Please model this.
Amino acid sequence: DAGVTQSPTHLIKTRGQQVTLRCSPKSGHDTVSWYQQALGQGPQFIFQYYEEEERQRGNFPDRFSGHQFPNYSSELNVNALLLGDSALYLCASSLATNGYTFGSGTRLTVV
Amino acid sequence: KQEVTQIPAALSVPEGENLVLNCSFTDSAIYNLQWFRQDPGKGLTSLLLIQSSQREQTSGRLNASLDKSSGRSTLYIAASQPGDSATYLCAVTDSWGKLQFGAGTQVVVTP
Model:
């Protein structure tokens, strides 16, 4: 049973560029959430998708946007990248709110 | 606004000793609490999930307690092993499924 799959694992982008990160949830899960984790800190909630709609959003600017597809997979898009966007981006899936399964993350470096 | 605090930030113990990790939260209106393990540069592995109506949860050498009224949870790891070296994160879930994390406790178990 595959868990949460994220791609790519590592990414290097230049300031001002745009990036798309992808996530496939665990089989049977319908809710996908995205988190940003800076070095040495706990993950910070970006947003959550359920039934292809953004259900909740954390304190992140509009440069961060997302999408959920009918098969429950999800994308995180970040526009106009800043150096401060360098972080580990984690995707988590769940069935309703009954515990979360996390992917291995995408390490984004902005230079 | 929910705030989650983990004390201590770092902990070093000799192999065989029991580990006690603390987590406190300011708003008792939580849906559940989850403990995770994170190895350097990796994603999060779920260890234990405690529903708000539960007092504790056990899995092998791990035991987690929850006192919602006082806003505290404790993770006990019995007979620690070098393989237990990692960062341990606690997170509380609100009714919408948003996870609020602490900054984590970095654990080193020395042989």
User: Anything to note?
Assistant: The mean pLDDT of chain B is 95. Chain B touches chain A at residues 4, 31-32, 34, 36, 41-46, 49, 89, 91, 93, 95-104 (CB under 8 Å). Chain B has no helices and eleven strands. Residues 55 and 107 of chain B are 24 Å apart (CA to CA).
